[in-house]
Specification:
This protein has helices spanning 2-12, 29-40, 113-116, 119-128, 150-163, 179-192, 206-217, 231-234, 241-253, 260-271, 299-307; strands at residues 16-22, 64-67, 71-72, 78-85, 101-102, 111-112, 131-137, 167-172, 196-199, 224-228, 276-285, 290-297. It has 308 residues and is α/β, with parallel strands linked by helices.
């Protein structure tokens, strides 16, 4: 499965890809960066890894860019992955950055942290990266409670959504199956319409990393949607009851459409309606986020339209 994911990633990005790791401080970004580096490719002994440790001190104090080994995914295609880890957004109860200046990944002079975030995080996401990981937590991994992370979490997710880049939220927790974790995941999904994966980053297996990678590649936002309804239905007056059934169904169902994974749910939603015979995808460009689908009326609706 991993090889298939690497192949798709390379094909979508012409072999050059940067993953951006962002989120509040003290959530496990540095640990995830290490995991992601090892997952993608073998590491050399002298490769620099992001620092991670327990406690309330902020440990990532510079924006780190890691270039990993080139991965040959097929005879004709290679993948050159990079990982960009950003300084985290400040949360309540942390220390370690007050009065400090932050070293940037592009070798410019260090700047005060208050000028860096969210400006530099936004630049890293929008200009330097193809994919994003927002790492947050339920509060179980350290001494800080869940509420301490919510404001910084909101700031980071908002920046990521504005960029329209594919991204996944990783909820770092000691117990991914806990009821309170499921509640947090549901709240985040309902609030932001995003993909959220609860995981114990420290203990994440390759199978779990495959799931994260797969979800990431299916998180391309749908930016443009065209829905074609049957031509004979289109010829009816806009306020005609039969045409209104299609119009209202489209308005209702497409509210569930926000990324690649949700396309299938939307198609199923249309197909469950008794007046729709089938739904077909006419065109989909994952990278551009353009989707066109056609709805076909049931035989009963076709007959009733002919009567009109």
């Amino acid at each position: 499965m991993k090889n298939e994911l690497l192949l798709e990633c390379a094909a979508l990005n012409d072999g050059e890809v940067t993953f951006c790791v962002v989120g509040p401080v003290r959530t496990g970004k540095s640990l995830f960066t290490k995991k992601w580096e090892y997952y993608l490719s073998s590491m050399e002994e002298n490769d620099v890894l992001a620092e991670s440790k327990s406690g309330r001190e902020v440990c990532t104090k510079e924006i780190l860019m890691s270039s990993l080994d080139t991965i040959r995914v097929s005879e004709d295609l290679i993948l050159n992955p990079k990982i960009l880890q950003c300084v985290g957004s400040k949360v309540h109860g942390t220390s370690g950055l007050r009065g400090e200046k932050i070293k940037l990944y592009d070798n410019r002079a260090p700047v005060p942290k208050e000028q860096l975030i969210p400006m530099q995080v936004e630049r890293a996401i929008t200009e330097k990266s193809e994919y994003g990981f927002v790492v947050t937590t339920d509060g179980s991994i350290d001494t800080l409670p869940r509420f301490a992370f919510i404001d910084a979490e909101h700031e980071t997710i908002s920046i990521m959504k504005k960029s329209e880049k594919p991204f996944v939220v990783l909820l770092n927790t000691l117990d991914p199956d806990a009821d309170h974790v499921k509640e947090i995941v549901t709240d985040l999904i309902n609030k932001y319409k995003i993909r959220v994966i609860p995981c114990n980053i420290l203990q994440a297996t390759e199978t779990e990393m495959n799931e994260i990678f797969s979800t990431l590649l299916n998180s391309y936002p749908v930016k443009e949607l065209n829905v074609n309804i049957p031509l004979n239905v289109m010829k009816l007056e806009e306020e005609h009851p039969l045409r209104m059934r299609f119009t209202n169904a489209i308005k209702s169902i497409i509210t569930n459409l926000y990324d690649t994974t949700s396309i299938e749910l939307v198609i199923d939603g249309f197909n469950e309606l008794d007046f729709i015979k089938r739904t077909e995808i006419d065109y989909y460009d994952k990278k551009l986020g353009t989707l066109e689908i056609s709805l076909y009326a049931s035989d009963e609706i076709e007959a009733r339209v002919e009567e009109n």
